[in-house]
Write a structure and sequence with these properties.
mainly alpha; 4 helices; two-stranded antiparallel sheet; three-stranded antiparallel sheet; elongated; about 65% helix
């Protein structure tokens, strides 16, 4: 049982790390010339001075705001489910199931899926003011990797039963 709890906890922490990197790091969209954009700000070196960076919002598009909200919501659900798991682990009676933790992980997976899908479908609208071309960055891929892991984690939590 200890090994199973260790594996489930490690999987949950891996999902948290993937979600933090996917949400906060700067490579959701790669423009031609290897210039990358994240969900929050676009920072470029000033043409006049090489040591000065100009930062501005990536876009005011409503779809981008939805992706930002869903990715933050997925982080909140994932943190909440980990705290709930620890709470249930130490307070629940023997034989109990981790339904609440599993439900939170399903919400995490649904949020990440929705955010990544919206970004994939509306990326041209989000970046319409930029040069055409470009590709998805590694943060976008990390979000897609976190989705099935969170879904699997939710299933594991629902079937996990507390033992002595």
């Amino acid at each position: 049982m200890s090994l199973l709890l260790l594996v489930v906890s490690a999987l949950h922490i891996l999902i948290l790390i993937l979600l933090f990197v996917a949400t906060l790091d700067k490579s959701w969209w790669i423009l031609p010339g290897n210039h990358s954009l994240n969900l929050w700000k676009e920072c470029v070196a000033s043409l006049n001075q090489s040591e000065v960076w100009e930062c501005r919002s990536v876009s005011e598009d409503g779809w981008l705001k939805a992706v930002q909200a869903l990715m933050v919501l997925s982080l909140i659900f994932c943190c909440l489910s980990f705290m709930l798991f620890m709470f249930q682990l130490y307070t629940m009676r023997r034989g109990g199931l981790f339904y609440a933790t599993g439900l939170c992980q399903f919400c995490t997976s649904l949020s990440v899926f929705s955010g990544a899908l919206i970004y994939a479908m509306h990326v041209q609208e989000i970046h319409q003011a930029r040069p055409s071309g470009g590709s998805f960055g590694y943060c976008f891929a990390l979000a897609w990797v976190a989705f099935p892991l969170a879904l699997a984690s939710g299933l594991i939590y629902i079937h996990l039963r507390k033992r002595e």
